[in-house]
Amino acid sequence: MGKRHHRERILKRLLDTGQKLTATDFSHVSNANHYFCELERMGLITSEWGDLGDARVKFRWIPEEKREAAARHLSGQSEKGKHHRPMKNNGVTLNNEYCTENSAVLQG
User: Fold this and answer.
1) R_g over Cα of the chain
2) Do residues 26 and 7 lie in contact, with contact meaning Cβ atoms separated by under 8 Å?
3) Which class for 60: exposed (0-12), middle (13-18), buried (19 or more C-beta within 10 A)?
4) CATH number of the domain residue 51 falls in
């Protein structure tokens, strides 16, 4: 499946469930965190760090004030000129204020 398809499936599930989900909730998507970061940069979702059992995870969800924009995006009616291109370095998305805030934790 293509990049856009994965991003849309993740967004649709977040919109349909209204729950805070993690990348592990999307086992059918390889590297779901990459798509989460793109959606966050697009202003469609929000995230926060939390604990799930003994693991430190990042929860993602669509807050009430962003639900309409997310629904418009899924229906193909998102605002023109709002396309965001991820910044890459060796295939890894970088320089994203939302996705790199705790990158030192991930790099171990």
Assistant:
1) 14
2) no
3) buried
4) 1.10.10
Question: 10 Å Cβ neighbour count for 56?
Answer: 12
- β-bridge mates for residue 46, sequence order: 61
- For 100, the 3-state DSSP assignment is coil
In angstroms, rounded to a whole number, what is the distance separating the alpha carbons of residues 18 and 53? 21
Query: pTM (2 decimals)?
Result: 0.68
pLDDT beyond 60 at 12: yes
Ramachandran sector of residue 85 (left: φ over 0; alpha: ψ -120 to 50; beta: rest): beta
Residues in the chain: 108
Least confident of 46-50, 70-74, 85-89: 85-89
How does pLDDT run across 42-51, given as a tens digit for each residue? 999 999 999 9
The total number of structural domains in the chain stands at 1
The whole domain housing 97 covers: 3-107
